[in-house]
Amino acid sequence: MIVQRLGEIQHKFGYLPDDELKALSKRIGEPLHRLHEVASFFPHFRLKPGPKVSIHVCRDMACHLAGAPALHSAMEGVASEFGGKQQVEVKGVSCLGQCDHAPAACVNDYVYWDKSPQQLRSYVELGLSNEPLPRQHAGEDRLPWKIDPYFGREVTYDAIKRFVDTRDADGIIKSLETSTLKGMGGARFPTFRKWASVRGAPSPVKYAVVNGDESEPGTFKDRELLRRAPHLVVEGVILSGLVTGAKQGWIYIRHEFEEEIEAVRREIQRAVAHGACGSKIYGSELEFDLDVFVSPGGYICGEESALIEAMEDKRAEPRNKPPFMVYSGLYGRPTVMNNVETMSWVPSILLNGAEWYRDAGVNGSTGMWFISVSGDVNRPGVYEIPFGLTVGEMIDDLCQGMKPGKTFKAIAPSGPSGGVLPHFIPRDRLPERFASTLPADATGYDVRQLPLDPAKLGQLDNMLGAAIVIVGSGANMVDFARNLVEFYANESCGKCVPCRLGSHKLAEMIATMMKGNYPRSNLKTIDELARTMMITSICGLGMVAPNPIATVMKYFPEEIEPYLA
């Protein structure tokens, strides 16, 4: 795989030297232009040597709320102190997956969180002196999550053993259907349908892939599962292969998650040693090989077809659909692809029963899930909760309330992709199908009462994702929308015109608006551009990119007003 070989070269030299690329070209029999085609696309790769120290400050959502602009400015001061850009480079970077410890930064590819400018300055000094930088470690202790049927005892891959004994693939698919388990990456596609489609595909070769490219700002729950419970995702993907007929699988993980990559590789080795993976699984004729694929970077790789393009050593540009992944995925073969959390729920559902999972929801919802909560709350983090828990219960009970001096102002229920909802929505701004469910005398809706359920968010013309960011009082919502739209402009793969040009144009228009005296008529242009992008973009990135400014215009018109002519 070209991508993995380029990653090895970059890790060794800090960039991709010309002579190394030429040597790789000869060694694998690929023309040099193919290597450049791949290397020039992904943000992780450098084609030229950089300065001795590179500081990348996360600029997205939670870090923005937590003071990333000030940290970026402080690091620019440090760079000036040590000779400027020739010695020290300071750049903004998209989400580093440390939103619960915002703001985060990366120094020479080492990710740090909860660090002061003075501490980061000391790392700059180490880098300039060619001294090794310290590595910041996170906890790996297993937690008493309900998702883990092995908590408190040895991992014995009981679900795989049961399948080897029964060979009841149809029964497993039926259990997944009864459980109501859906995709936890945000799409919410029924898991049993994917598995059944790949199982029924006539191809003699099939693949299984876990999407662990967790790059959505505000999202870090897969990080915790990969680190603290890698056995669940390993067992889940092995089961997906045995049920569907796939004999090869990969767990695709973003390159910044070094500890998580190490944890998963150790777990794969343990599964092989235990007889649960590889050839002759538990003495049977069944086989399934599993490996880790390290992402070369880029938010767009979270889109399943773009991820497959990266694995095929191409530029990670989303494919037109159909055909769909279950019929023509990796190398044109039927491919079952699920999110880390989705795969991780499978063992416990099969061992505890489909009804155990289905009936765990509250307030009329079904199932459980993991959420990443960040922003202006006292205790951000990853929480295992039932679907249907309310926003108020999440803030007060799980996150122990708002930060001192802050009151609840808004919520981004799906990271940047869903836009924002205010703490209170006047009745005349609610969709009619939602307003009709309220008492006749209700003047609006208190969002604290909102159940965290995809169907309920859908009634509000919004969506429920894995990332929930809480915005406190004092936040400038226009600036917040600008930050979110700029994320999409930075991360557009550039394949389709509506997204490539539209996302940048939206960001430019909001930045111009914030300078003041903005023509009121231009709001209509923003609205028209937003609707055009939603209708004509190839993949979800372009479709959701306008949501931040569209929801701010809808729910926070009073904050738009001071900027208008």
What can you tell me about this protein's structure?
The protein is of the alpha/beta class and 565 residues long. It folds into 5 domains: 2-39, no CATH class; 53-128, Glutaredoxin (3-Layer(aba) Sandwich), CATH 3.40.30.10; 158-356, Rossmann fold, CATH 3.40.50.11540; 365-470, Ubiquitin-like (UB roll) (Roll); 476-565, de novo design (two linked rop proteins). 43% of the residues lie in helices and 14% in strands. It is built from 24 helices and 15 strands. Strands 10-9-15-11-12 form a 5-stranded mixed sheet. Strand 11 (408-416) and strand 12 (421-422) form a beta hairpin. The longest helix is centred in the middle third of the chain and has 17 residues, at 258-274. It is globular and about 75 Å long.
What's this, in brief?
The chain has a 5-stranded mixed sheet with strand order 10-9-15-11-12. Strands 2-1-3-4 form a 4-stranded mixed sheet. Strands 7-6-5-8 form a 4-stranded parallel sheet, sandwiched between helices.
Q: What is the structural class?
A: alpha/beta
Distance between the termini: 55 Å
CATH topology (fold) name of the largest domain: Rossmann fold
- Give the count of helical stretches: 24
Radius of gyration: 24 Å
Number of E-type strands: 15
CATH class of the largest domain: Alpha Beta
Major beta sheet, strand line-up: 10-9-15-11-12
The CATH level-2 architecture of the largest domain is identified as 3-Layer(aba) Sandwich
Approximate helicity band: 40-55%
Query: Tell me, what's the shape?
Result: globular
Low-pLDDT sequence parts: none
> What proportion strand?
5-15%
Quick one: CATH superfamily of the largest domain?
A: NADH-ubiquinone oxidoreductase 51kDa subunit
Total number of domains:
5
Rounded mean pLDDT is: 95
Q: Biggest sheet, in brief?
A: 5 strands, mixed
